[in-house]
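Researcher: I'd like a structural prediction for the single chain below. Treat it as a standalone chain; there are no partners to consider.
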Amino acid sequence: MAQKGKDRQQAVKGDLPRPSPGRAAMNLHMKYLVISGRDEMKISRSLDGRLEDLSPTGLIFQTNAMRVDDLHLSYDESPILRNKLTMEIDLPNGRKVTAIGEVSWNERSFVAKDHIYHIGVVFREMSAEDRQVLKDFLLATKRTVKAIEMDV
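Model: Treating it as a single chain, here is the predicted structure.
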């Protein structure tokens, strides 16, 4: 049974690219809050995070807690009932991108003394304008060649 859960975790992790070991963080700031998958009126306070990676389909960020105001970043009472994250990403050009996503995977870092978690998020909702801002940013910084091919 434990092996089955591990296989599922690996499959879910495959949804987003993993950061390369030893790679410096993007160091972009973001704010996020958690919305309950069971009761959308149950919303956490806003917290800060640091982006490690950003793509047209999602992001990877660091945080120091998997729970915010009694809401788990990934799920409520059951891993089947997914919570949502509302995120506001500060881009270096002074623009902000807002998106709603779901946690695809998480991993605790054992390198740092403090509890640090790496969180992979898949975008589920984003306005057309924010998608274009994100695409322009990714193209300008040459972070990904695939951004040209994808209709973000």
